[in-house]
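Title: Prediction job returns without error message
Component: structure pipeline
Severity: low
Priority: P3
Assignee: unassigned

Description:
Job completed but the reporter wants confirmation the result is attached to the right record. Sequence as submitted:
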Amino acid sequence: MGKSKQGRPRQRLKKEEEDRISHLPDSLICHILSNLPTEDAVKTSVLSTRWKSLWLYVPRLHLHSDKFPHFNAFKSFGDKFFGSNNVSCLPNIKLTLDGHASKPADDDVSYVTTWIDAAIKRKVQHLELWCLPDYSEYEIPVSLYVCETLVSLKLHELVLVDSCFVSLPCLKTMHLRQVYFPPPDGGAIFDKLVSCSPLLEELKIAWCCFAPQVFRICSLSLKKLNINLSNDASTGDEVRVVIDAPLLCSLKVNDNLCECYLVNNLVSIAKLDIALSFGLQNFDETSVASKKSIISSFLTGVSKVRDMNIYADSLEIFWQYSKLAPIPQFGCLSRLYVYLCIPGLKWVLTFLESCPNLKSLILEWNGESKKEHSKEMKQINFSSVPECFLSSLKFVNIKTRISGDAGEMKLVRYFLKNCAVLKKLTLRLDCYYANENAVLKKLLNIPRRSITCQVDVR
């Protein structure tokens, strides 16, 4: 008996220690639940009477229709959550609508509008709405255009309707992915979304459908712009992009749709990532000549960039352009990454003539068909020496793995013999093809113009 009496207090103490979470205030428990997937937070409602409705207070909702067995279950859950008076503030919402569970037989999707209206009343700050293919005709409610608390808006596969009035005073991030811009007012609503967001800092446009004739991006606050468009979005008309964003720090463009890019009032830009074809299908001199003034304007507009990634199509276009007119000087450019095909090495050398202060060069090309690449590389004339080789280029990094054949070593020799202030040349050996000892012996026999240069072989 003595042992059992002494054991009971210990058992009660141990039980209390194990259930410490129940002594936490509701606000802290809700904060903990907000870090769980929504479906797991809901499961805690069976723990006790106290926990039954705690999930309704969680200030975060990530709801995916595929998590429900049928439409009625999905809609019932959403109606209960958004219809609850328990949540006065709901800052973070992500809705993914996909498949049979999210769409009723009569195609009536007005319930989604009701949910979004409820979220706006609860001062939503971060809203992400994914409407996957079966759901892509959903039009966002106009109430979203005047949400005073919205900080981040990410929309996927839905329709942007026009609105007489747009005001998003707190919006800083906007992503528009595969959204529909219905003609003839698609361009007008896009203009309003950007111009009526006075704090907008990040804008992403990707794979949009029925692209407007003009993407006009005029913003005094925009710092980061990402444009990813393909000719699948074409309506048959010429599509143009006009950028007027003096504070822009980062511009990323992957675009074979738009025929004209105008960049105005760009004082300085930290980073440019460009895969741009100006709507051209062929990159011969005649085709490029038809875009001469547009290409000239673009190059001048981005010429103050400090860090650039450039890809083969754009590089070839600029090379053809250089036969028609001089490429503007990129005097601020410090780092250049180039992805190309082997014949594009001559395009790189031409572009480097316009980069007098370049410090770091990264080269990468398709590593397949090594025999053909070696043959092409041996035919390239490496006679010209850009100004940056003599005064500023300190780091060269060849990211494609090499085998040490004659063509590749010709390129390596070109850098080592001509770069006067080079500090490091980084190479990567192809373990399957390369004879490491043979490659190292070749490297030791190449004279180096810079006496401080190190060759890093990985």
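Comment from assignee: result matches the submitted record. The first strand starts at residue 60 and ends at 64.
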